Amino acid sequence: MPKSAILPALSMAMLAKASGKRGVILPRENAEEAADFLRRMANRTHEVRTCVVVTTGSGNALRLLTQTSVSQVTLGPVTDAQIAQYCATNEPFDKAGGYAIQGLAAVFVARIEGSFSGVMGLPLYETAQLLRQAGVPVL
């Protein structure tokens, strides 16, 4: 069993541009940006990708193990009043896509295809697989 392992994860929400290419929606810092992205995602499906990396060892024995969770999230209709009320909670700040699926924004989610924990920011299935590969016992 390894003496230590490091496990960072990063989530990004991506919304297709009119050209069909994907655009990355980064974590939002203020109500205006969060509201803009929520308006753009309302009544649409966007993709959430969360990459997990497990590092073990050091020096020449350093191992990097990675997996990416990809989920499709569809938001239903969201009014400007609902967006303003949600942004007033400060919950959307520093969140990929400007919302927290595990929080109040869950009421906006019409459908999710993929990993709920991945959309939250740490895909547990993929994380457990990586930890096992690194020699860390998981159930």
Protein topology:
Layout: E1 5-6, E2 9-16, E3 22-25, H1 31-41, E4 45-56, E5 63-75, H2 80-87, E6 109-113, H3 116-120, H4 124-133
Helix pairs in contact: 1-2
Mean pLDDT across every amino acid position: 87
**Helix/strand structural class:** alpha+beta
Q: So what's the overall shape?
A: elongated
Helix and strand sequence: EEEHEEHEHH
Number of strands: 6
For the record, the CATH class is Alpha Beta
Amount of beta strand: 25-35%
DSSP helical segment count:
4
Radius of gyration: 17 Å
Termini separation: 14 Å
State the domain count: 1
Low-confidence stretches: none
Residues in helices, as a percent range:
10-25%
What is the architecture at the second tier of CATH? Alpha-Beta Complex
Give an overview of the whole structure.
The chain is built from four helices and six strands. It has 139 residues and is of the alpha+beta class. It has one domain: Alpha-Beta Complex (Maf protein), CATH 3.90.950.10. Strands 1, 2, 3, 4, 5 and 6 form a six-stranded antiparallel beta sheet that branches. The longest helix is centred in the N-terminal third of the chain and has 11 residues, at 31-41. The radius of gyration is 17 Å and the shape is elongated. The mean pLDDT is 87.
What labels describe this entry?
139 residues; Maf protein; 4 helices; elongated
Summarize this, please?
Helix content is 24%, strand content 32%. The protein is of the alpha+beta class and 139 residues long.
